[in-house]
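S.,

Sequence below, as promised.
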Amino acid sequence: MSNQLNDTSKFLSYILRHEPQAIGITLDGEGWTDIAALIEGANKSGNAIDRNLIQQVVNTNDKKRFAISEDGLRIRAVQGHSTDNVSITYPEKVPPEFLYHGTATRFLESISQEGLRPGERHYVHLSENEQTATVVGQRYGSPVVLKIEALRMYRQGFKFFQAENGVWLTGQVPPEFLNRTDLNQEPVNCRTR
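The prediction came back faster than expected:
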């Protein structure tokens, strides 16, 4: 991805997930905003974007972070929102037996005590494979992959959802459902002692 596409993707993530008011736009309850208003607000704030650039970002983003409405007039971030007024209705699904979460070693102590929590986001984000979780973990430092007993959680009443881009979402993951998987090593139980 070119620098312009990468910079625009980061800008759109920031605006469409966290701070739409920074450029004077609003998001509806499902996270949608008008593309024309987004372009106008971005350009007024010194971020030169146009419809073609937005479409390129949507089409080339490897994580499929954004969606454009069927009529082509609106855009949203698929998941990862921290704004209070957005509450996307995701389909509830039965998860696979295991899901994965990438993090950094410096967060392991608090995770072993509290489990995984969404922080400022609405949900904890999980992936179906260790490779994706490793890439996510690398963004925060030395990566660690946590293996979540998702199906066991579901059978105990925890709800799981899946975003349009395949990311699995849940409200929290208590420590008793976590196992740490270091690269090339056996899983280590993360349960509190």
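The domain at 99-189 is CATH 3.20.170.30 (ADP-ribosylation fold).

Coffee later?
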